[in-house]
Amino acid sequence: INNKEWCKKGRKGGHCSMKCEDLLNEDLADDVRCAKRIYDRVGFKAWPASYAYCKEKSLPDLSKC
């Protein structure tokens, strides 16, 4: 999650309205909320390396996890 669009260094900001430093603590709830917001806006294209690797590949069924 980069600081160009989604968070701001040292203060709340970006599309996730959070400090980037808050992504580094043990509380994952705000990280997940931000990742979901990113996915809802642009999908997996926000993570180019993962998107290129996973594009058009079948994903396992995780519904029973």
TrEMBL record:
One of its GO terms (molecular function) is lysozyme activity. Its EC number is 3.2.1.17. Pfam families: Lys. Residues 16-34 form the Glycosyl hydrolases family 22 (GH22) domain. It comes from the Eukaryota. One of its GO terms (biological process) is defense response to bacterium. The keyword Transmembrane helix does not apply. Keywords: Antimicrobial, Bacteriolytic enzyme, Disulfide bond, Glycosidase, Hydrolase. It is an enzyme of class 3 (hydrolase). PANTHER family: LYSOZYME C. Belongs to the glycosyl hydrolase 22 family. This is Lysozyme. It comes from Danaus plexippus plexippus.
